[in-house]
C-alpha cells in the first residue's frame, strides 16, 4: 500500500495557488501550509474541512518564517527558536483541523527547511523537538535524512517519501530547483518515475544511476503546471498496476 500526499493550502488572502479541492479528490494525505511560507487562518480551516469531508489525513507543513520567499530560502535559525516556531505552526493548524472535525496527524517540513534537514543536524533535531513538544506525531521526510534519523531517535514514526515530479541526484537528494530539469513537467515522465518506485523500489538519477529506495508515501506537488492532471494520472496508473492506496496514518 502507498500513500499519496500533496502540498495544499498554499494561497494567501486573495491569492490562490493550485486547485486544493481537485487534489483532495486524489490524495490520501494533505500537507497543509501553516502560515509561515503560505496559508492564512481561513485557508487553513477551509482545506482542513475539505480534507475531513474526504477522509484525507491532515499534516502540518511547517516552514521557515519566510512568506515573501515562499519558504524556499535557507535561514540560519537558532535551533531553540526553530523548535518553538515548528510547535507554533503545528498548534495553529491543529486548532483549524479540530474546528473542522479532524486533527493534525503528521508533520512535514516545506521547501528550504525540508532540504536543510536532510543534512543539517541542528535544524533537523530542532524540527523534531518542535514536533515532540506537541505530541508523538509521525514525521514525513527524505529517506536517509537527518530529519528521519532524529525522528526515530525521539520515538516518532519516521515516514519515508519520494517525489513524483522532482529529479534526483545520484546521492538520492532532490536536484535544486535553480537547476534545469529539477521539476518533471510531462505526465509521461511523472508516471514513469512513480511506477518504477511502486514496482521496483528504485529511482533513476539525472546522471542515469539507479537508486534503490523504499518509500511509504509519494508527494504530488500542487503548485506545478499540470499538477491536477499529473495527480489524477498517477492515481489511475497505480490502481491499474494493482497498488493499493491509503493513508500511512493509522487512527
From TrEMBL:
GO terms for biological process: carbohydrate metabolic process. It is an enzyme of class 3 (hydrolase). One of its GO terms (molecular function) is 5-oxoprolinase (ATP-hydrolyzing) activity. It holds the Pfam family LamB_YcsF. Keywords: ATP-binding, Hydrolase, Nucleotide-binding. CDD domains: LamB_YcsF_like. Belongs to the LamB/PxpA family. The gene is pxpA. The lineage of its organism: Bacteria, Bacillati, Actinomycetota, Actinomycetes, Pseudonocardiales. This is 5-oxoprolinase subunit A. Its EC number is 3.5.2.9. InterPro entries: Glyco_hydro/deAcase_b/a-brl, LamB/YcsF/PxpA-like. Catalyzes the cleavage of 5-oxoproline to form L-glutamate coupled to the hydrolysis of ATP to ADP and inorganic phosphate. PANTHER family: 5-OXOPROLINASE SUBUNIT A, UNCHARACTERIZED PROTEIN YBGL-RELATED. Forms a complex composed of PxpA, PxpB and PxpC. It catalyses: 5-oxo-L-proline + ATP + 2 H2O = L-glutamate + ADP + phosphate + H(+).
